[in-house]
Amino acid sequence: MSATIISIGNQKGGVGKTTLSALLANSLSQDLKMKILAIDCDGQGTFYKYRKNNLQDLGKDYEFSYPIKRMLFKDLHDHVLSDDVINNYDVVIVDMPGALYDLDGDSGTIKKFIAVCDIIFLPIIAYTANISSSMEYYLALNDIRMRKKKVFDMDLDIYCFLNRKRNVKEYEGIRELLASYGLPLLKSELSDSIEYQRISCEVKSLMKSSTSNPKLYNEYGEWVQEVEEKIMLNKKKNQ
Q: pTM for the complete prediction?
């Protein structure tokens, strides 16, 4: 077993990084029976708080389908590369801070971690400011990807996808626009629904949840399936 290190990242706030990290951890561990480690390195610690609140409701002895750790970013690089992590999990999901720089303006620590990631999924919301910020973030990731390939001959896979999609004018032709920028897009898309955030706070996967919205089951199921395919493809490349 060799863990695949993934993150849902973007430097723009409000794109759903933490919500999707929590949903994905539940789905991969429960629906796909993978051994998952979740790590919350975001400054707000929202993902970790979700599960801490679950313990208050369900009891301190409740066993989640995966462990979750709260960790300072400076400790993350060495931890995810440790034998205890690499050899004991299928996937490590890291909820990263949005910015590529810390409070002191240093980018070294964050970029050092990104370089050991196997896959980064980049959610995009179709508004001008978000697209511009997402494009800037993608270019920074791509620069790290190219240097990693050159120095270590190892891949960093980057996949963008539309999140919080609405049936409004801003989304007309958005896939064609992003493709024209050269962004690698997933086929699946996720709509703008408060249900996603609500279910991410629960301990059950969305596919086992009580949501009455069949559209969520369908589109989310397609997204998780595509994410799984990218994880399996990455594992195959790194064998």
A: 0.92
